[in-house]
Automatic annotation (TrEMBL):
It comes from Duncaniella dubosii. InterPro entries: Glyco_trans_2-like, Nucleotide-diphossugar_trans. Residues 8-187 form the Glycosyltransferase 2-like domain. Keywords: Glycosyltransferase, Transferase. This is Glycosyltransferase family 2 protein. Pfam families: Glycos_transf_2. One of its GO terms (molecular function) is hexosyltransferase activity.
Amino acid sequence: MNDIPAISVIVPVYKVECYIHICIESVLRQTFSDWEMILVDDGSPDTCPAICDRYAQADSRIRVVHKQNAGLGYARNSGLDAASGKYVCFLDSDDYLASNTFEYCYRIAEREAADQVRYMFSRITDRDAVNMQPLSVDDGYVIGIGRDGIEPVLDIISPLISKRHFFATTTASSCTALYRRDLIERHGIRFHSERELMSEDYIFSIDFGMVCRKIVYTPYEFYYYRHNPSSLSSIPRLDRFDRAVHFAAFLAGKMKNYGYEDSEIYAMGYAIGEMRSANLRAFFSKIPYRQKKAVFMRTLQNGYVSEIQRCYPLERLPFMQRVAFYLHTNRHFWLSYFVTKLRMIWKK
């Protein structure tokens, strides 16, 4: 094995003592052994720090960084500061990977001289059986070159605006990709704090995608994302849309700096998606109807909604999204609530 590992996997750790074993074991069971794992203990108050230390003592490829709590984004940055691999990937500590993730992604990255290999995820719950078996793959992937290569990611963040020179199934998450580390360091790419900027990993994905010469997109669900179905029924944050508007302004400036003429439209597309998300969370939460309506109306108090109405090409939205936007901006709470519930039932 070389002194420089092929892959550094960075795992931020905070209050996940029920899941951290599964996460770490999914790396230990990889069919590709030339890796290092950096466990970043973000000041976790449970037994996670001790668990991480025990794994590091048992395997020299595992290192632990103990730090004061500062959130997910900064924990990943601490991992990047400690990483030495040719490539790097991120794994959240309540999730896990299929056992041939590293083998496949490294082979494809080397074969194609790619700066990034993106893959998909599968949602799991606590009731699902853990499956770390290798995925069956046939090397079916598509390649994006230069600036056009990031369009599938941008289309996730803000649909309909990109010129779509080509299409690929993907996500915008920073956890579903293998990155060439020297590009990250050369361009000083780091995460923002999610406490200051929601969807902070979207910005990381954009910043890295903009400096890529070649991106490989695979359809394989190597990443197992732990999803809590009850999260939809939790009490929604009243300031979520206000935070989304803050992110939209940041995104507009980011896209403008990268030379995109439609930077404001990109930002508005993201905000429209967050309007739908805010309503969905409110409608399916366990709060009284009066509070659901308060969440619904609060969004409209933000002046950015009026700007969207004036400037965004709403005619390009899919029909049901146009209907949802119209019902919301015209304050039709009960009709919007009924249509949303009906759509969710229909999807099931």
